[in-house]
Design a protein that fits this description.
Chain B: This is DNA-directed RNA polymerase sigma-70 factor. Chain B: Keywords: DNA-binding, DNA-directed RNA polymerase, Sigma factor, Transcription, Transcription regulation. The complex is a heterodimer of chains A (257) and B (166). Chain A has a 7-stranded antiparallel beta sheet, sandwiched between helices. Chain A is globular. Chain A is built from 6 helices and 7 strands. By secondary structure, chain A is of the alpha+beta class. Chain B has 166 residues and is mostly helical. Chain B has 2 domains: 86 residues, Rna Polymerase Sigma Factor, Chain: A (Orthogonal Bundle), CATH 1.10.1740; 80 residues, Winged helix-like DNA-binding domain superfamily/Winged helix DNA-binding domain (Arc Repressor Mutant, subunit A, Orthogonal Bundle). Chain B contains 7 helices and no strands. In chain B, helix 5 crosses helix 7. Chain B is globular and about 50 Å long. The chains are: A alpha+beta (257), B mainly alpha (166). At the A-B interface, helix 1 and helix 2 of A face helix 1, helix 2, helix 4, helix 5 and helix 7 of B.
């Protein structure tokens, strides 16, 4: 051991206990590998959740109709010790979204029009899938079992609705789902224009991993360290208003899978 | 990674975790940021373990991954929240002989790549050639970037020896 190393070691001192857990690392590593295998097996359909789901939604979305089935069985607004079902998760996320939008845009109307959607695949067609109102009876068979959208169906949630803020009315498509684990930490590298924003303009928790935000004319997207992907856009690929609002909604800590 | 390789990965991580955290701390000067950096690198290591485990010097390779990951983060400040405890990169006050925090001020006063060179050369005991290879820079650059750190470190070490702390 050299003297320089000793000097540096003295500076480092005694390391505090770490939160790094090997089991958690292995679990996250396995999840990442599953995501890569899904992406590879799908022949590029899910090269990234952003590209695939955005394309599907923005090209193939249909407007929700009145009186359509609402996804949800039992609302879950507090943490539960048992596993959350997909329907419960969808309802929780919708409630979080509605609360966050109402908080960020006081006076907003149309929150009740947000309806859960699901993907229906049409192999060989363009686009290969479209959004239709959620239907529990056909949900599991809406996409071929060997397709990526089928595998992703339990952890990806979409809503369409029509909101009015400050006299401006627009249709919106909101997505909350899992970032495909191509590279959990490197995903934002795919988006060079990423910026950051936190509610209230704060600097965030010291040492906390970043929340990556992309705000464009058509889409606002937020990628969280826990793997939650949020994005919102106009279902017909028109300019998306209220980008500040959507960024604030997306980074709401309560919005997570 | 193949499941049969996981025990070896676990064993490696368990054995090297504290060492990697200390190296990361020397780069970040913040334990939260250091742990975040180490987690990121260990996840990348999980993905590439089957290949890395066959390297001639696995430790050096992983330290290179750690240092390069930190340098990448520095190049993309928007990608990650900057810890409040991290001091701005401004010229530091002269290091006082025997000042136990002087080494920290020294390291913080160095630019990112220069800091990486100092840590790899003088804490990880890597050679000029190894450091140059890991960072993708020339050996001459390693030598020149480590010169200032070496001079100051030498002074600190002599001071510490004189006080019988080493």
């Amino acid at each position: 051991m050299n003297d320089y190393r000793d000097t540096l070691d003295e500076y480092v001192g005694t390391a505090p206990r770490t939160a790094i857990d090997i089991d958690d690392l292995v679990h996250r590593g396995r999840r990442a590998e599953r995501g890569r295998r899904i992406a590879a097996a799908s022949g590029g359909l899910v090269l990234s959740a952003v590209a695939a789901l955005s394309a599907v939604s923005l090209l193939g979305a249909v407007a929700p109709g009145p009186g359509l089935p609402v996804a949800a069985s039992a609302a879950v607004s507090t943490p539960s010790t048992r596993a959350e079902t997909p329907d419960e998760r969808a309802q929780r996320l919708l409630e979080v979204l509605q609360a966050a939008i109402a908080r960020e845009a006081p006076g907003v109307t149309g929150l009740e029009t947000l309806r859960r959607q699901m993907h229906v695949c049409s192999p060989g067609a363009t686009p290969p899938a479209r959004l239709v109102p959620y239907d529990a009876a056909t949900f599991d068979a809406a996409c071929p079992a060997d397709s990526a959208l089928h595998r992703l169906r339990l952890e990806n949630f979409d809503w369409l609705g029509q909101l009015t803020v400050g006299g401006v009315t627009t249709a919106v498509r909101i997505h909350v789902g899992a970032v495909p684990a191509e590279d959990p930490s490197g995903e934002p590298e795919l988006m060079p224009e990423l910026g950051r924003k936190l509610p209230g303009g704060g600097a965030g928790v010291p040492g906390a991993p970043a929340v990556a935000v992309m705000a464009g004319d058509l889409v606002v997207q937020v990628v969280k360290p826990d793997g939650t992907l949020f994005f919102v856009g106009h279902p017909e690929k028109r300019t998306l208003p209220w980008t500040e609002l959507w960024q604030a909604v997306g980074v709401d800590p309560a919005l997570h899978l | 990674m193949r499941r049969e390789d996981e025990p070896e990965y676990r064993e490696y991580v368990a054995a090297r975790l504290e060492s990697l955290r200390r190296i990361a701390f020397l780069l970040c000067h913040d334990w939260h940021a250091a742990d975040d950096l180490v987690s990121t690198v260990l996840l990348k290591l999980y993905r590439s373990w089957s290949r890395v485990r066959r390297a001639d010097n696995v430790d050096a390779y992983v330290r290179g991954m750690l240092t390069n990951a930190w340098l990448d983060e520095r190049r993309r400040p928007w990608r990650r929240e900057r810890p409040e405890a991290e001091l701005p990169e401004v010229a530091a006050a002269p290091v006082e002989p025997g000042d136990r925090t002087g080494i920290g001020r020294l390291l913080r006063s160095l630019g990112p790549r220069q800091r990486a060179v100092v840590v790899l050369r003088f804490y990880c005991d890597l050679s000029v050639e190894q450091t140059a290879n890991l960072l993708g820079i020339s050996e001459g650059t390693v030598k020149s970037q480590s010169a200032r750190g070496l001079e100051t470190l030498r002074g600190l070490a002599i001071e510490a020896n004189a006080e019988g702390r080493l």
